[in-house]
Amino acid sequence: MAAAQYEPRVGDLGHNRAEAVRWSQSAMEQGARLVVLPELASSGYVFDDEAEAQRTAESPADGPTVGALRQLCARHDAYVIAGINEADGGCRHNSAVVVGPEGLMATYRKLHLYYNEKSWFEPGADLPIVDLPFGRVGMVICFDLWFPEPARALALAGAELIAVPTNWVASFKRTVWDDRGYCQGDYVAMATAAQNGAFMVCADRIGEERGMRFIGASIIVGADGWPVAGPASKDAEELLIADIDLDDAQAARARTPRNNLHTDRRPEAYRVSEVPVSPVRA
Amino acid sequence: MAAAQYEPRVGDLGHNRAEAVRWSQSAMEQGARLVVLPELASSGYVFDDEAEAQRTAESPADGPTVGALRQLCARHDAYVIAGINEADGGCRHNSAVVVGPEGLMATYRKLHLYYNEKSWFEPGADLPIVDLPFGRVGMVICFDLWFPEPARALALAGAELIAVPTNWVASFKRTVWDDRGYCQGDYVAMATAAQNGAFMVCADRIGEERGMRFIGASIIVGADGWPVAGPASKDAEELLIADIDLDDAQAARARTPRNNLHTDRRPEAYRVSEVPVSPVRA
After folding, report:
1. Residue B232 DSSP code
2. Is B245 on the interface with A (CB under 8 A)?
3. Which of A50, A204, B93, B228 could form a disulfide with A218 if both were Cys (CB 3.0 to 4.6 A apart)?
């Protein structure tokens, strides 16, 4: 599995497509069967206006990004999950596409739009899950991670890996824990992996667009909640690659011989009881 | 708010009660209005057999631990949340009690029992929430944190602070990130705070009982998901104190001027759609 951290350029579709192919190809030549690219890798992130948002959108079904990645996937018998600005008639979605040797397999539309994304995109309505040859895969995008429900729903539906194309911005600040630096996105992804027994592959971008800085720190997290690659640096291109077996997700859910993260759930007990303000017993 | 990290002794009820009072008093004398003590602070953790588990259990309503803490709370106009081995007729619960100046206010019974706790305890059936003078407070215990649902339910019901009496064991291993060391419990608590916009006060224990080692790393986390005190050391007694205003939880939920962690939820969209194995479009 691979996560590519690089710098798309807002509005420069040709450059972004070439970069998506270049990073995916590099990962596949090093043996990656699945490559995750950043959020909105096709278009860049900080649009100036509606016209730019619309001009940089493309169809997942027959758009140029999916088309270019499809050829690469066919050549290497591999898969790419990439963030694209998805054209959908008169509106757009902040989407992640799953592309394989035979073309587009699934499109996930981000459920939780962050800040000014609300001006450019319509949110999605569900969480696709797809069976790839090496395992069952779901997707969330960036701010979706700050909501525990999507990853939970995917894991309970059997997802062994959750791909996270992302554009973490400076408000998800990095820590001073060490020289590499974990950002909040990293440890939220680690907790999500630990709670669900699922691998997480988070591909962030770097660089700055129109005053907005992105913070890197891409990470691949094991189903036990600990990093297996990364976090990547805060400002350099980097390709994270990890040799992981998605069958290990099942084992990671058995935290002890008597515990399983999925079957130990207590849905009937997740209800709050209000305690009267006066003490139960004086 | 305070979290007391120390070493209860299994089976030594008098010692444990004295320690609970001593640490709570010390925190209150330094200004704490709420003190959180470790899981099973009344009894210790690693029971030898059913007889020991039963002998060390007590009633929350009129047991000696709650009684002793009540006097202290009355003297200082403060509150304690403590883990106790709760006697409940023929069975027991791994519980957290809220004690105030007028006595017992609420009892939470751990929903997700870890490993051999399943031999000694019956799990709880709901999540009490209590209004204290400084804010709305819920509780989870240790392994409960590995399930996102309890904290989520509490936060959506208005909890501004979640108290976490805990006994993190070595399998929740510490990292090598830095000299202080964050364990998995720390970053899961941090992610839980970041996702819910709630303060987390985690009081762990230290020491070893019958071959089981506990790992400290107690932590107080702000509603923005970043530590405000701790993590504490892995093997020393430590009292964490943080001056926090629970009203800040509301503000922390507004991650941007256009986002709120609670109202941005998309419950209708948290459903998985299966993608057929053949590609959508060749």
Report:
1. P
2. no
3. A204
With CA atoms as reference, the chain B residue closest to A254 would be B115
Whether residue B129 lies within 8 A of chain A, CB to CB, comes out as: yes
CA distances from A204 to A169, B81, B87 (A): 10, 40, 51
Inter-residue contact B2 to B35 (CB < 8 Å):
yes
Whether residue B162 has pLDDT greater than 50: yes
Handedness of CA B2, B5, B11, B12 (dihedral sign): negative
Where residue B173 falls among pLDDT bands split at 50, 70, 90? low
Give a yes or no: residue B271 inside a domain: no
Q: What is the structure's pLDDT at A275?
A: 84
- The mean pLDDT of A5-32, rounded to a whole number, is 98
CATH at residue B6: 3.60.110.10
Using CA atoms, how far apart are residues B238 and B217, in angstroms rounded to an integer?
10
B124 in A contact zone (CB under 8 Å): yes
- The single-letter DSSP state of residue B145 is G
Give the bridge partners for B36, in sequence order.
B3, B81
Residue of chain A whose Cα is closest to the Cα of B158: A272
Residue B278 banded pLDDT, cuts 50, 70, 90: low
Q: What is the ipTM of this complex?
A: 0.96
Q: Is the preceding peptide bond at B133 cis, omega within 30 degrees of 0?
A: no
Cβ separation B116–A270 shorter than 8 A: no
Which positions in chain A touch B177 (Cβ < 8 Å)? 177-178, 182
Distance between B7 CA and the closest CA of chain A, angstroms: 24
- Asked if B152's CB is within 8 angstroms of A148's CB, the reply is yes
* C-alpha pair distances (Å), B42 with each of A132, A157, B12, B16, B221: 51, 40, 8, 5, 25
- Give the structural domain span for B143: 2-265
Q: Is B102 a catalytic residue?
A: no
Q: What is the C-alpha separation between A159 and A187, in angstroms, rounded? A: 20
> Any CB–CB contact under 8 A between A254 and chain B?
no
Report yes or no on A109 lying in a domain.
Answer: yes
Q: B25 CB contacts (<8 Å, ≥6 apart)? A: B72, B76
Q: Tell me the β-bridge partners of B93.
A: B86
Show the tokens assigned to A73: 């996937």
pLDDT for A59 beyond 50: yes
Q: Which of B118, B152, B259 sits opposite A115 (nearest CB)?
A: B259
Contacts B228 to A, Cβ<8 Å: none
Give the Cα separation of A210 and A10 in Å (integer).
Answer: 9
Measured CA to CA, the distance from residue A41 to residue A251 in angstroms comes to 33
Which among A73, A14, A5, A11 is positioned nearest to A39, based on CA atoms?
Answer: A5
Query: Considering only CA atoms, which of B160, B176, B122, B119 is closest in space to residue A266?
Result: B122
Residue A54 lies in a domain: yes
Closest chain B CA to residue A226: B184
Tell whether A191 lies on the interface with B, counting CB pairs under 8 A.
Answer: yes
CB contact at 8 A, A229 and A241: yes
Domain count, chain A: 1
Nearest to A273 among B127, B194, B195 (CB): B127
Which one, of A104, A106, A110, A137, lies nearest residue A38 by Cα? A110
